[in-house]
Amino acid sequence: MQRAIALARKGWGTTSPNPLVGSVIVERGKVVAEGWHEKDGDAHAERMALAALGKKTARSATLYVTLEPCSTAGRTGACCDAIIAAKIKRVVIGAQDPNPAHAGRAVKILEDAGIEVTTGVEEDECEDLNLIFNHWITQGVPLLAAKTANTLDGNIATRNGDSKWITNQASRTDVHRWRRLFPAIAVGAMTVLEDNPKLTARWPEEEEWSPVRFVFDGLLRTVVDRNMPKLYTDEFRNRTIVVTTPHGGLGYVRKLEAAGIEVWVIPSDSQRVPFGDFKKRCAERGLSGVYVEGGARLIGNLLREQELDYLFNYRAPVLFADQRARSGFTGLRTEKIPDAVRLTNVRHANFGDDQLLRGQVVYPPKVQVDEANFA
Q1: Distance between CA atoms of residues 145 and 154, nearest Å
Q2: d(CA 113, CA 94)
Q3: How confident is the model at residue 372 (pLDDT cuts 50, 70, 90)?
Q4: Across-strand partners of 285?
Q5: E-only strand ranges, 84-227
Q6: Kind of pairing, strands 116-118 and 90-95?
Q7: If we measure between CA atoms, which residue out of 301, 267, 317 comes closest to residue 190?
Q8: Mean pLDDT of the chain
Q9: Predicted local distance difference test score (pLDDT) of residue 161
Q10: How crowded is residue 356: how many other Cβ atoms within 10 Å of its Cβ?
C-alpha cells in the first residue's frame, strides 16, 4: 500500500477535480504491475495497473488500491467490473469512497463476486492524499485552506514590515508543491500592493504552472496605480480573477476587463467579500480547492466568518519578541481557552529547522469577533 501511495502522488496537481489514486498488483509475493490516475478524464489507477500487466492474472493475484474502486461507469467504466473480469483473487483498499452514496458499495460488489476484500490499510495516509477531493465530494464547495509562515511567537513580519524570509528555502519549496496541488490560489489586496507576487507554482525540473489566481479586493485598490501588478500583466493573466464588491467602482472593473482580467462582483453591504458566496461561485466554476496565502487580514476575515477549512502553518525557530511586530492572525476576541479555534487531524513535517503543522480548522460553538478591529 505504501508503494500505491507513492504512485498516487505521481498525479499530484494533474487530476483535479478527481482524486489521487495509486494501484499495485502482486502475484506470488512480487509486484507485477502498477498504475496511477494521471489526469482528469484518463483511465483510473486500477485499469492502468491491469493494462500494464498485459496478461491474465495469476490465481493468487492481489490488487492494492489507495481508494475504494469506483462502482459506477462514469467516463472510463466501473473499475469494479474490470477487477472482476480480471479474476483478481483479493483486493486491498486504503480509504473508503468519501461519497456517502457510494461508500462501501464496491466492497459489497467485489465480495458478491467472490473476491476477498480487506479495507482500512494505511487509511490515514490514503485519506490525506485527497483532503481537497474529500471535502469537495462531501460538502459540494471548495476547500478553503490558508498558508502562514511565522516566527515562534506567531509573527509574519517585523514592526517595519520586513518578512523575507522568515522560513527557509525548503519550506518555501514545499509551499510551491501545495500550490501545484490546489486548482486555485488567493491573496488579499494588501499582499498584492506590498509584495507584487506572481503566485505560480515553480517546482524543480517542472515547467512553471499557474493555478487560477484570486485577488480579494473589495475596493479595487490594486487597480488605482498606473503600474499594474504582475498578476494583471504577466503571461498567466487570463488565469487571474479579481473578487470585489459593488463598492469597488465600475470604472476600475472596466479597466481590469480591458486588460483581460476576469472580475467577480459579489454583492456585499461592506467592502468585505462574503466568503460563503465566493465558495458558491467557485463551485459553479468547478474549483475544488483554494490555497489562501494571506495576508493576516484576509485570513482573519475567513476565521471571523468561519469559512476557513484548513490551515498550513510553517514555523521558523525565530523570535521577534516585539509587541508591535505583525501577527499572522487577528480579528477574534478569545477570552477563554475553550473558545479558541483549534486544529484536528493534525500532521507534522520538518524542513530543516522549520516545522509545518497542518490540519482541519474546528470552530468553538461561538466565535467572538473583535469589533474594534473588524475591518
Answers
A1: 18
A2: 20
A3: low
A4: none
A5: 90-95, 116-118, 143-150, 155-157, 184-188, 212-216
A6: parallel
A7: 301
A8: 92
A9: 84
A10: 20
pLDDT digits (tens, 9 = 90+) for 115-173: 999 999 999 999 999 999 999 999 999 999 999 999 999 999 899 888 888 999 999 99
Cis previous bond, 74, omega within 30: no
**Grid cell at residue 95:** 480509504
Cell 519550506 -> residue: 171
Measured CA distances, 94 to 4, 83, 207, 371 (Å)? 9, 16, 32, 46
Q: What predicted TM-score, i.e. pTM, was given to this entire model? A: 0.92
Return the higher-pLDDT residue of 170 and 42: 170
C-alpha cell at position 166: 522568515
Closest alpha carbon to 320 in 102, 151, 115, 96: 151
Q: Does 211 score more than 70 pLDDT? A: yes
Locate 354 and state its grid cell.
522549520
Task: Say which of 34, 46, 127, 293 is annotated catalytic.
Answer: 46
Please give the Cα distance from 363 to 350 (Å, whole number).
26
Is 116 among the residues known to form the active site? no
Give the residue carrying C-alpha cell 465480495: 111
Among residues of the chain, what percentage have pLDDT more than 90? 77
Q: What are the strands of the beta sheet with 116-118, ordered from one edge?
A: 30-36, 22-27, 62-67, 90-95, 116-118
DSSP string, 303-367: HHTT---EEEEEE-S-----TTSEES--SB---SGGGS-EEEEEEEEEETTEEEEEEEEE--SSP
Distance CA 38, CA 7 (A): 10
